């Protein structure tokens, strides 16, 4: 317990609480309009999706283009649980996330033998297959989509889930399990020779990443009243991949910041709807040309950055400080 | 019982025989050299012993158990560790993390303990970091534990690789040209270090080396490989004067100590 | 027998679609072979080709071959431009950064076209008329357009094979794809060779754009997304980096897709294509014509 009560942890907890309360007050007094609330929710889901994708792609080094597929599974299964089976939301959230994790295992086991671009294209295919199967499943509404999902997701849910996601993935990464995942990214042969069962850790990263993507999907479907398979296509996977790369592969805080920055940019670009996508595209190209390693590279943003003179403590574990 | 027994192992790559009918026997505690001209198949032998390559025929008994067909990670967990000819550190990670990753098989805490940061997690992580630093101290690297591996000078990278291999707590250590690229003084220090770690950690060591002075001065027994076959074996003095060995090395510069 | 004719007819249709996939897949495979980049914008170059063809026929009143030539030339310029401006600065960056750039270029082409021309699809001008040739007592038909697609695709592939195998540029391309540093030491101009690769690939995509306009009579700014993806899949199927592989993969992809629509459920067409891809990748990751490179330890 003592180890958890470091000054850094207390500062972070306090800051998070302040953010939560301020936003909650602004929401309940109506200062934050519905339009901004939607973006707040999308930003939170973006954080969950980007951080979980970063675990797979940035830390374990497994390039996947099918993350939206897991999101779709979480979104649909949780919606089915609430709408058709009458389950409470919390169970639906967990159910969606767990089924996504199971799918992550079933998909990961055969495909993770592939490397680099081959894995990317296979996961892209998996994502598309999931989408098309949903499109053809009458039970969940087919192409028309699944209707009548209650809107339960709100700022509190989003806040709690994002914090839990970031915390879990951070704790995973800064442990022996996480270091093993990172060693797979660094050098598969050397990792295997050092006793790291690389298949095991690739699948672990994939399953945990899929779990949180499923959670993101469940939150998403319970915000939008209805969902369609088309909303979870290849473009959605790309959207989150862009967050990961922009934030920096292998930087959790980078992903969090990129999710926020991109959501804010999106809000800003709404006023230029005609050229929104053109500006977004130009932004992507320009950022990649001038900062291909992303905003944070593989470093983590921390309060220690403001206290350079302090000795680096045990946070100097794999994944940066 | 011998610690390692290699029985008639062959490895064929698309019709080309890289290793033919290899027989080797290492007793526990031995320090053995594996030498031979370029392309003789020395590194292939290492790759077969560590499971990177599968044998075409024959079997490899380690501690009485057949390791042929096992995954490299499983073989490592049975007690075989190695270094690489062309250094393969986790180059973007810190020195400490390189060693901690190698301790990975000996970590007892489970995933939930890591996720929820239990007391056991902290206790084990602390203990692991302590052992890692102790190990780094042997190689005079403890002062650089927070540096990124790729920023170390070449000789230190070589030493870090050995430290990392030792962190897996092996019984049998394979060193692939540990002195490559080192100057004579560094090489001499390394020779002493290798013998010291053999005694200190109760290891059996097999080392590939090009620098003949290192092999002759350090190893108790030597296997000579040519075209994938063992052409001679025995103590350094015998091997040095074996006409087959001299012939195999003709044209190559031999630097006897 | 009836069954057989239906099958044959689907084959004819499938090869037409497949030829178009093959032309696009060739560009993917060449670019991937030389700079290891999945050029996501490639499908959009094909879209631009279709639109250039559309305007060439409507406003310059050139015939089919005129528009084909103009579209190819325009795509060559576009391809070189994209490579020089967007990809060249990232040649030493991570693959994934280059990939994101390619996605950015893809969005840029798509939405600039939407902005300039509107998102709705347009009718491609009818320049060839409709002639049907019946076989087996008018049980199986081949249209003049299909014959044209076969002919143009075949001619372009032969030309490509000639360029790659026999010309100096082609040899340089193969050398750079094999080992860029060694090629540079041998005095090959890397920048020009990569540009040439983009030029060739883009020309083929432009041709595919005009052919698809002729065949399906409708074009739209977002038409490149799906065929682009599938053509890439086709390139992987054939063994990425291999020119005959891309051609075969493309045709196979077209045939499989047509058969799924004919015999299965059309809503499953995309899923089946990808499912086959996944199975092939798991069984033989290097594709039909690819070679397995072993990492040296």
Strand and helix map with partners:
The complex is a heterotrimer of chains A (321), B (257) and C (297).
Chain A: H1 7-28, H2 34-59, H3 67-83, H4 89-111, H5 116-135, H6 155-173, H7 176-186, H8 188-193, H9 198-221, H10 234-247, H11 252-269, H12 276-290
Helix pairs in contact in A: 2-6, 2-9, 2-10, 2-11, 3-4, 3-5, 3-9, 4-9, 6-9, 7-9, 10-11
Chain B: E1 4-13, E2 16-26, E3 31-35, H1 42-49, E4 57-62, E5 65-66, H2 72-78, E6 80-82, H3 95-102, H4 111-115, H5 119-138, H6 154-167, E7 172-176, H7 184-200, E8 204-208, H8 212-218, E9 221-226, E10 229-234, H9 236-241, H10 243-249
Chain C: H1 2-35, H2 42-59, H3 64-87, H4 95-117, E1 122-123, E2 132-135, E3 140-143, H5 144-166, H6 168-178, H7 180-185, H8 190-216, E4 218-219, H9 225-238, H10 243-263, H11 269-283
Antiparallel strand pairs in C: 1-4, 2-3
Helix pairs in contact in C: 1-5, 1-8, 1-9, 1-10, 2-3, 2-4, 2-8, 2-9, 3-8, 5-6, 5-8, 6-8, 9-10, 9-11, 10-11
Mind explaining what this structure looks like?
With 321 residues, chain A is mainly α. Chain A has a domain at 37-232. In chain A, 67% of the residues lie in helices and 0% in strands. Chain A is globular, with a radius of gyration of 19 Å. The two termini of chain A are 22 Å apart. Mean pLDDT of chain A is 88; it is low at 306-321. Chain B has 257 residues and is an alpha/beta fold. Chain B has 10 helices and 10 strands. In chain B, β9 and β10 (229-234) form a beta hairpin. In chain B, α3 packs parallel to α6 (154-167) and α5 (119-138) packs across α6. Chain B is globular and about 65 Å long. Chain C is mainly α and 297 residues long. Chain C has one domain (15-223). In chain C, 73% of the residues lie in helices and 4% in strands. In chain C, strands 1-4 form a two-stranded antiparallel sheet. In chain C, α2 (42-59) crosses α8 (190-216), α5 (144-166) packs across α6 and α5 packs antiparallel against α8 (190-216). Chain C starts with a helix and ends in a 14-residue tail after the last helix.
């Amino acid at each position: 317990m003592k180890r958890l009560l470091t000054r850094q942890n207390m500062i972070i907890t306090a800051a998070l609480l302040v953010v939560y309360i301020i936003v909650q007050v602004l929401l309940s007094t109506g200062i934050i309009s519905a339009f901004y609330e939607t973006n707040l929710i999308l930003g939170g889901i973006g954080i969950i999706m980007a951080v979980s994708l970063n675990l797979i792609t940035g830390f374990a080094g497994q390039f996947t283009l099918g993350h939206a597929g897991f999101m779709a599974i979480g979104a649909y299964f949780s919606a089915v649980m609430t709408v058709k089976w009458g389950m409470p939301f919390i169970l639906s959230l967990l159910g969606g996330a767990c089924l996504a994790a199971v799918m992550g295992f079933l998909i990961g086991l055969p495909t993770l033998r592939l490397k680099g671009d081959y894995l990317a294209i296979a996961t892209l295919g998996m994502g598309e297959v999931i989408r098309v199967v949903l499109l053809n499943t009458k039970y969940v509404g087919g192409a028309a989509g699944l209707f009548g999902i209650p809107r339960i997701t709100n700022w509190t849910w989003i806040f709690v889930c994002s914090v839990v996601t970031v915390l879990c993935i951070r704790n995973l990464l800064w442990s022996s399990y996480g270091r093993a995942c990172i060693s797979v990214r660094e050098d598969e042969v050397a990792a295997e020779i050092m006793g790291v069962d690389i298949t095991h850790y690739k699948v672990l990263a994939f399953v945990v990443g899929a779990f949180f993507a499923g959670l993101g999907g469940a939150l998403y479907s319970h915000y939008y009243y209805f969902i369609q398979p088309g909303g979870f296509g290849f473009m959605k996977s790309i959207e989150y991949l862009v967050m990961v790369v922009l934030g920096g592969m292998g930087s959790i805080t980078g992903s969090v910041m990129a999710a926020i920055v991109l959501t804010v940019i999106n809000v800003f670009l709404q006023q230029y709807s005609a050229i929104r996508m053109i500006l977004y595209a130009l932004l992507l190209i320009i950022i990649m040309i001038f900062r291909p390693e992303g905003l944070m590279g593989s470093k983590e943003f921390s309060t220690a950055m403001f206290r350079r003179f302090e000795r680096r403590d045990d946070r100097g574990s794999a994944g940066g400080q | 019982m011998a610690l390692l027994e290699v029985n008639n192992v062959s490895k064929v790559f698309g019709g080309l025989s890289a290793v033919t009918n290899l027989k080797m026997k290492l007793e526990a505690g031995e320090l053995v050299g594996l030498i031979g001209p370029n392309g003789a198949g020395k590194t292939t032998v290492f790759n077969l012993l560590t499971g990177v390559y599968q044998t075409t025929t024959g079997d490899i008994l380690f501690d009485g158990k057949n390791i042929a067909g096992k995954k490299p990670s499983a073989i490592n967990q049975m007690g075989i560790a190695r270094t690489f000819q062309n250094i393969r550190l986790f180059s973007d990670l810190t020195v400490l993390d390189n060693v901690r990753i190698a301790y990975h098989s000996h970590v007892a805490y489970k995933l939930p303990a890591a996720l929820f940061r239990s007391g056991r997690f902290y206790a084990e992580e602390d203990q692991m970091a302590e052992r890692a630093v102790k190990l780094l101290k042997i190689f005079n690297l403890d002062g650089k534990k927070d540096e990124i591996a790729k920023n170390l000078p070449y000789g230190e990278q070589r030493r870090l690789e050995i430290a990392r291999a030792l962190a897996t707590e092996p019984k049998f250590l394979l060193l692939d040209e540990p002195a490559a690229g080192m100057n004579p003084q560094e090489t001499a220090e390394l020779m002493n270090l290798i013998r010291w770690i053999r005694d200190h950690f109760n290891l059996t060591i097999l080392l590939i080396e090009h620098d003949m002075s290192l092999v002759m001065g350090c190893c108790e027994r030597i296997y000579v490989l040519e075209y994938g076959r063992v052409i001679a074996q025995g103590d350094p003095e015998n091997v040095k004067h074996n006409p087959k060995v001299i012939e195999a090395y003709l044209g190559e510069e031999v630097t006897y100590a | 027998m009836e069954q057989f004719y239906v099958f044959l007819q689907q084959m004819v249709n499938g090869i037409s679609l497949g030829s178009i996939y093959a032309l696009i897949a060739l560009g993917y495979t060449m670019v991937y072979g030389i700079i290891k980049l999945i050029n996501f914008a490639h499908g959009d170059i094909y879209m631009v080709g279709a639109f250039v063809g559309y305007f060439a026929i409507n406003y310059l009143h050139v015939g089919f071959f005129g528009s084909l030539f103009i579209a190819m030339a325009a795509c060559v310029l576009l391809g070189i431009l994209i490579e020089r401006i967007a990809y060249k600065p990232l040649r030493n960056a991570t693959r994934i950064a280059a990939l994101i750039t390619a996605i950015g270029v893809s969005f840029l082409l798509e939405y600039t076209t939407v902005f300039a021309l509107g998102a709705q699809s347009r009718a491609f001008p009818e320049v060839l008329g409709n002639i049907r040739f019946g076989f087996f007592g008018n049980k199986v038909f081949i249209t003049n357009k299909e014959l044209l697609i076969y002919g143009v695709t075949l001619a372009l592939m032969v030309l490509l094979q000639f360029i790659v195998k026999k010309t100096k540029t082609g040899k340089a391309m193969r050398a750079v794809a094999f080992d860029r540093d060694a090629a540079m030491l041998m005095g090959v101009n890397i920048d020009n060779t990569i540009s040439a690769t983009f030029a060739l690939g883009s020309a083929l995509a432009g041709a595919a754009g005009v052919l698809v306009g002729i065949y399906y009579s409708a074009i739209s700014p977002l038409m490149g997304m799906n065929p682009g993806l599938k053509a890439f899949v086709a390139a992987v199927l054939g063994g990425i980096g291999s020119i005959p592989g891309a051609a075969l993969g493309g045709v196979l992809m077209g045939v499989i897709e047509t058969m799924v629509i004919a015999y299965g459920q059309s809503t499953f067409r995309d899923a089946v294509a990808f499912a086959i891809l996944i199975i092939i990748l798991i069984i033989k990751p290097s594709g039909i014509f690819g070679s397995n490179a072993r990492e040296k330890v």
